[in-house]
Please model this.
Amino acid sequence: MAVESEDLLATPLQFLKGVGPRRAADLARAGLATLEDLLYRFPLRYEDRRRLQPIAAIQPGRPALVAGRILGAQLRTTRRPGFKVFEVVVGDDSGAIRASWLNQSFLRDVFAKGQHVMLYGPAELRGTAGMQLTNPQYEILDDEEGETIHTGRIVPVYEKAGGVTSKMQRKIVHDALERLPHDLEDPLPSRLLEARRWPTRRAALLAAHFPPSDAAIDELNRFATAAQQRLIFEEAYAFQSGLLARRRFASLDCKPATIVVDDRIRASARAVLPFKLTPGQRQALKEIVEDLQRPQPMNRLLQGDVGAGKTIVALLSALVAMENGVQVAFMAPTEILSEQHYLNLSRLLQASRFRVTLLTGTATESARRAQLAEIASGAVHLVVGTHALVQGDVVFHRLGLVIIDEQHRFGVMQRATLRAKGLWPDVLVMTATPIPRTLALTLYGDLDVSVIRDLPPGRLPVKTIAKPESRRDEIYGFVKQQIEAGRQAYVVFPLVEESDKVDLKAATEMADHFAQDVFPSLRIGLLHGRLKSEGKDRVMRDFASGELDILVSTTVVEVGVDVPNAGVIVVEHAERFGLLQLHQLRGRVGRGAHQSYCCLVYQAPISDDARGRLKAMTDTTDGFEIAERDLQLRGPGDFFGTRQAGVPTFRLIDLVRDGELLAEAQREAAASIARTPPSSTALAGLMARWAARFRLIEVA
Ligand code: ADP
Ligand code: MG
Model:
């Protein structure tokens, strides 16, 4: 029975009444391949075409719904050559009205005198020609009383798919719904439906596409009717069940070594600690170390706003691992960042017996070979580098912990890479991108999460201002003043076009302009993605040691760079940056004890969205609030920039709208799995179906 229902839903659309190969191809391009795809896609909106009007009562300027008989029909040419108008006159007990369609000559074969029809469309006054319905939707009412689809009811409006109009889709969906068997299998447990008074799957699908006549139109358009909610929940429940399955499955793995923590190790950690941890750091460390001591690999996300101090937490975790005789890989998204981590970590570990190495793409062949040999033999304990580190030819002696900095979105994929190599280390992913709750529930639903909410003591929130370009002089004056007070400044340029050439030019010219005209007495450095690794390194080092006053940079400075004396960041063309990116950039300052400033310079006029972003920046420094606003401004599809592998494809769920249902689905799915724990074979099957359905290709 269940199999039959699923088979039916898997029917390719081509085999549905009224589809055929041409339309099927159009629908496929819109992502609709099967009956299930079609039925599990809500209309864009619903239109209220319920109220029939007597023809005599029609008002111009409003849509009207009328029913009557065709009194006459004609196709006529217009004064404009090549244009034809088809007209009918429809009459009811109260009067008659003309309906007119431009260039739809085929209607000649649709309408015939004496037919009973329903029309829905805007009523217009056409000068001396009087009132008419212009291009109305129509429906021929058969004499046997049938249900109308396009008129006389609440009507679903679909997004056009190639040549397949909303009206055609309405008909196709309607026919498809009629094929659903009354005992269509329902993936939701019946106790859940009863508790929430939700309709069955079949009833919900019917009502979501062709709502009953007493449905509330505004509720429908908010997608808040019981039928719609149930279908959204159904998708969320399927998603969360798969996520839980994956998590259970991962917990069947065993890692290479059991980690223990004793007094000796605690003392060793204290010895490297340069300051007192904040309560948030301490709590996060505790959660991580508890994971490390479990036999199953850790899969944890460490969230903390920029400057919250994630690095030291990672280092202490690494120390615990190394004390237990396993190696640690520490990865950052860019070479600049990995170099910075390397310098930082080797400084902190100087007094310890652990050896750190930096693996870059620029080492000579022989140097690299020597490095790889040391890693393979276990002589090196902590390896810092970019993501090439676990993806390339590096062979570890005993890899026990992988730390991934500022690259949350690749976490899942990297785990898959590791698994493919037969490695099951603990994985700690760190991010300063505050992740809105709903996204955390989906993208990271199978990660444990630690959050550092506090900042190291003595930090002052960064003051942020937004100014148009015309007031740039004031900003330069302010920068100068800050530098005279002992601070340093960043000036950042966006990627102007999809080419770093232009990007580079803007930054280079600005650096020259600063050096020659604006700040002739100051020391200016330039950092961009085209510099060789040593070049970047030198500039960063000079800036960090205070030998440069101003660092003019492209966005390479965005992530993780840490220079506590930097007190001002000027962002040029701030209107072009995404909100999270602006927040990241702002995080470059405010890292020391002094008051810091973020100046957003924009080129007027700016779009409403850009204005919204700048306003969010000046309103708050709270990363979580920024993230929520970003999600609202951009929608979830764009939250992480371009679409990412690992971001599920939802059909009905809207991450901005449906946060509550997602959270409930997670609870229910967890309760259900706890009640009847599936076998590992069942888990594997569930995961495979889940990955296919939500197009999560890289799941291992
Ligand atoms: P992020 O979380 O953005 O990676 P970092 O780890 O780079 O932050 O830390 C930011 C700065 O704060 C660094 O200079 C670091 O040394 C300092 N820091 C971190 N934790 C503390 C603390 N508990 N007390 C004082 N300073 C700290
Ligand atoms: Mg960091």
Remarks:
- The first strand starts at residue 45 and ends at 49.
- The radius of gyration is 32 Å.
